[in-house]
Amino acid sequence: MDMQSLDAEALCKTLVEQMRPHVSPATALVGIHTGGVWLAERLHRALGLSQPPGSIDVSFYRDDFGSKGLHPQPKRTEIPFTVEGADVIIVDDVLYTGRTTRAAINELFDFGRPARVDLAVLIDRGGRELPVAPRWCALTLPEPLPANQSLQLEAGATGELTLRLIDA
Amino acid sequence: MRNPQLNKHGELQHLLTIDGLPRSILTAILDTAAPFTAVAEREVKKLPLLRGKSIFNLFFENSTRTRTTFEIAAKRLSADVVNLNVSTSSAAKGESLLDTVDNLSAMQADMFVVRHAASGAPFLIAQHLFATGRDHIHVVNAGDGRHAHPTQGLLDMYTIRHFKRDFTNLTVAIVGDVLHSRVARSQIGALTTLGVPEVRVIGPKTLLPTDVERLGVRVFHDIREGLRGVDVVMMLRLQNERMNGALLPTPQEFYKVWGLTAEKLALAKPDAIVMHPGPMNRGVEIDSSVADGAQAVILPQVTFGIAVRMAVMSMLAGQQGSK
């Protein structure tokens, strides 16, 4: 498929409609830095949720710390709601190996025991290395993206979302 | 010669002194410390970064506070911490410093946090580890003689940045016993590297090193003149235990001339902050009303110290040279 034609705004709408029947106003969103945070803010508005969205930077929970070290300038993880007993949806822009999701789940549990955790992503690019599957996904690529390429969500000055294909 | 603190990729291998570290590394430590400050507010006050690592606190000189903050920092990173109060154990039985290090290395240490009364002891340990092919073990200087106390200097910088945001428009005064203070040396190095335009050193001639101007500071022998218009007042502890000979008349007399009182502090900027590395001698270098006053940030310094030590330890353990 033509990767240049991916329309992030249209995918966003698709994701909102997929999620709408399954969320209640008390559902809490947590975006993974950086793309997932923008997406979580967007979903939060579109779905009319009452809990403020949280954000997670998984730098301190990555499994490649031993070989790659600390990522420079880690962001602060902010969970502005009570995790204990909450219905939480982890939000990320692109799902790849599943390692980031694993790290985010671990970090979330250090804030309390949620009643339920789901995963919502804009795009599943294939290439999973862990048993992780999204509950909602706007687009699953028919063929896994080659390892030397990456998809990146970008936010414009007025907040519009675009997807960019990057060759490593 | 390569800076012994950096590995061949230019990453921090040991933290021995602020001297010679580029601004980029100091800033990276402060930036990394920022998200660690929030860990204490979590249900589980722990991060998994140093899981399975063994950190030895090697204290050849007593210090409850510094050892405790290093211990808390290591534990919040999930490391295993062993505290050795060496002044009351092997060294007292005659074991040499490097023999102690060799024995603990044989117990699979990953990091040594070292405090020693002799200047250069942590450097000697780092050199020995390098010479014996064990440079996967990291060394953090927790205070050596009169030389350096780099994590104290860094936590002071974190505190200043937290309250003042920017280093490049500040006037900072360091007051008191600079001669015996490793803290002052680390502070001066960090402040100048981070771009503070004016660092003042205030104290009696007998308690200032003779060549202190060469560190790039302005020297004042009159505290009132020195405090005028400053943004930050960094008090030092009067180090009675390190003094030989008649450098001072009495602590009471020192307080009268050099002690920070509300009246002297009023000469600084109205929003000036007051710092102290602890432990404080109330009524000697600082008046109680100032130490407990609205401008004091002495307790935040302690809290930030844990985050800064977490940043240093995770940056050391996570660089490419380590396994």
From TrEMBL, chain B:
Q: Looking at the keywords, is Plastid present?
A: no
Binding of carbamoyl phosphate: at which residues? 65-66, 115, 149, 152, 278-279
Q: What is its EC number?
A: 2.1.3.2
* A Pfam family of this chain: OTCace
Question: Which reaction(s) does its UniProt entry say it catalyses?
Answer: carbamoyl phosphate + L-aspartate = N-carbamoyl-L-aspartate + phosphate + H(+)
PROSITE patterns tied to this protein: CARBAMOYLTRANSFERASE (PS00097)
Q: Which UniProt keywords apply?
A: Pyrimidine biosynthesis, Transferase
In this chain the Aspartate/ornithine carbamoyltransferase Asp/Orn-binding domain maps to 169-315
Q: Which residues bind L-aspartate?
A: 93, 182, 237
Q: Which HAMAP family match?
A: Asp_carb_tr (MF_00001)
Q: Which family does it belong to?
A: Belongs to the aspartate/ornithine carbamoyltransferase superfamily. ATCase family.
Q: How does it assemble?
A: Heterododecamer (2C3:3R2) of six catalytic PyrB chains organized as two trimers (C3), and six regulatory PyrI chains organized as three dimers (R2).
The identity of this protein, by name, is Aspartate carbamoyltransferase
| Upper taxonomic lineage | Bacteria, Pseudomonadati, Pseudomonadota, Betaproteobacteria, Rhodocyclales
